[in-house]
Amino acid sequence: MNKRPLFLRTVIALVVIAVFGVSMYPLSQRNFYDTFRSMLKDPDDAVAAAVIADAKEMEAKDPSLFASQTLLAAADAKGVELAKLMDITSVQDNRDVMSAVRKEASSSIRLGLDLNGGVEFMLQLIPDEDFLAKLESIGQNDGSSRQEAEERMANEFDRYRDIAIEILRKRLESQKIFEAEISPSGSDYISIKAPIVAKDEKVKLLNLISMSAKLRFRLVHPENDRLVEEYLANPLAFVTPVGYELLSTSEFRSGDKPIVRYYFVENRTAMDGKTVTSAYGGRDQYGQRQIQLSFNSDGARQFARITTENVNRQLAIVLDGKLYCAPNINEPITGGTASISGDFSDEECKNIADALVSGSFPFQIKVDAVFDTDPKLGADNVRNGIWVGIWSMVAVIVFMCAYYLLGGVIASLALIINLVLIMGAMAAFDATLTLPGIAGIVLTIGMAVDSNVLIFERIREELRAGRNLFAAIDAGYSRALSAVVDANLTTLITSLILMSVGTGAIKGFAVTLSIGILTTLFSAVFLTRLIFDYLYNYCPNMKTLKMRQFFKISGIDFPKLWKIGVPLSLVCCLVSIGLFCWRGKDFLSVDFTGGTQVTFNCEQQVPVAKVESVLKANGITAQATYKFDATSAGDSRKIEILIRDDMTAQVNNPKEVILGHLTASFPEAKFSGGLESSVGGLIGQVFIRAAFWAIFFSMIGIGAYLTLRYEFSYATASIVALAHDVIVTLGIYALLGRTISLTVVAAVLTVIGYSVNDKVVIFDRVRESVNLGLSNNYLDIVNISINNTLSRTMLTSITTLIVILFLFFGGGVAINDFVLIMLLGVIVGTYSSMFIAAPFVARWHRRVANLNR
Q1: Which residue, 652, 598, 623, is CA-closest to 813?
Q2: 182-191, 195-204, 575-584: range with lowest mean pLDDT
Q3: Distance between CA 606 and CA 609 in Å, rounded?
Q4: Both ends of the chain: CA-CA distance in Å?
Q5: How far apart are CA 434 and CA 115, in angstroms?
Q6: How many whole angstroms separate alpha carbon 370 and alpha carbon 120?
Q7: 620 by DSSP, 3-state: which?
Q8: Is the pTM of this model over 0.70?
Q9: H or E element, residue 677
Q10: What is the DSSP letter of 83?
Q11: Using the 8-state DSSP alphabet, how is residue 286 labeled?
Q12: Which residues pair with 271 in a beta bridge?
């Protein structure tokens, strides 16, 4: 048995479980004021109580304000330095305190829009005057007027709007929010829907997304001190010098009002921030926060010229029209760097740095509205899905315990701990749990069970060979380890590539899957082995490990079946591709195509599933969600109904038609008003391109790993089989009249991960059989290997299908497409391991004698 000290391994296991278990707290949001009070050195502090009272009064007067905003404003107005009142040392100013309280008040796990709703920002894009001026200057070169330049801007508006969408996506991803939904809305709007962990996080996101990130370096008037003195003496009579404007900065002072400093700054920009290549927050030698900037070669030369020509003058650093600082140029700066100092928190430093790196907008951003959104799946679906997931887990545990008896109990314990580790790790790494994330967890459950099945089946073989119990356990773990590690690492390679190359929900799926793979290796291998070692030390009289066996080693002649299976698969692939071409754009959901969005006011909330069912019964396929005006104190409930453009063509005047159907079916809801607008797809060209390259490089990564661990033929066989799995699964899905959505894309990625795991197990047994010299005919070796692993294949498929079937029949309509892809993928993936990948390898090598082994 394992000779490593039990105590050390036990401590490691307990520490890991405790750390991730604690990370799950709290599971729900906490009151901001109560959290702030709990973080004070003295919860009953009179000064803090006065600040809270003022903040609540401000919030009552203006319901659009959040607690973090009113608390900060109240503290600044009183000159209270909150950092001195807090029982934490990592904060420097009031903004730091707000960031710390916001984080402490947040729930541990960020739930996605589909599970928990979130916030929606409606952003109006106003073309930048600087950008229009550039177009006009270009137009003057070819005789075009300003009006023609504006028309040119209008013609290219969509292209620049796509640029803005990707910039916004990058900014949100810098906050580890990969699951935001960003889409065009109407002629000049963008809709951003993002999951949040606390209501006050809206303030942070609002500041981040509304930042145009227009960095400007502008010279200060050489006689600024004299001009400021004259201005302060008589502000009303003062005339600002031509070519300059008055800007100001404020500096917080403890116990007093903020100090305001004035600067007369040139209207002309000496240099912009387009040449910035990197930006990060830090501190200067005095401990003051600053943002360090690095320029590319052109920017470095330009900055060196400006600072050389203006030694002993002040250079104002202006971001989005706000003056942050105006340092004096003491000497030429030729190193290609600069810094922005000012009165901002660590959080603001990071946000500004992220915005500068992600790029500036060719627009001014105006936040037109802020809404709270309900879960896209609907509360009933979410609640139903949770219960179905619990019962499916119970079913898997019962099956494992009934089949493997004591071994099943150990595996089930490891499975429960694995789920705790996954949720704790997601909380620790700020991952978002969404429906695609649940897909990753489902795959993780399948792989965790698969790892234990591999080990237990190996132990069974060793017991059958005559070894004693603990020697069989030792050999079982040792011989199964390569297959377990290879199967998990190939999937991990896929997830890491998806994480680095993919965007949006694909990256979110990859994060969840990566976490699940690592926790699976820990729980399914490390923990279960630790438990068996305790049995060895404290139950030495155990002589056997009883297991049931429904599937015995078979003697199926698979090469004979390949003669039917391979041609059938080829036909299925061709038919599937034909179906894709035949359905065309109809195969894509509104996530890809965009459509028409109709919004109504309502006084009573009708379940989303009922609304969609009524519309479908009347020939209108639609997606419905509820949202609430976050800035309104009254009842501002709205329902959004999204239908495809081709459906709009079939329904004349969709707003009136939909309103008529809903009013007739749900008169108590009192639907009224109605706003109709065109919205773009959630999945733009950049997203599609990123998704394509992510999947392409995933295949390359899998192929490279299998080539190194096995050989090139195995890698090629896997890629061919995975392509088969995706094509046939989507072909059957298309035949059933379904459409591809973002959720379906995540499900397909899950299928790829599950399928490659299945194939690696067979390849590992083929390699072992070759090394043992079971036959000199490669065809026979592959056939023997498939038969030897058939029980494992069936058991893994059954346990995974238990979970999927529970979700399919009990999970509700909202997740049906997702679960259907999973169901088809598990079946097709299991089939292809035996009827595509295996015959490919067998035909590649006719005889072992031809191999250089």
Answers
A1: 623
A2: 195-204
A3: 9
A4: 31
A5: 6
A6: 6
A7: coil
A8: no
A9: strand 672-679
A10: G
A11: T
A12: 217
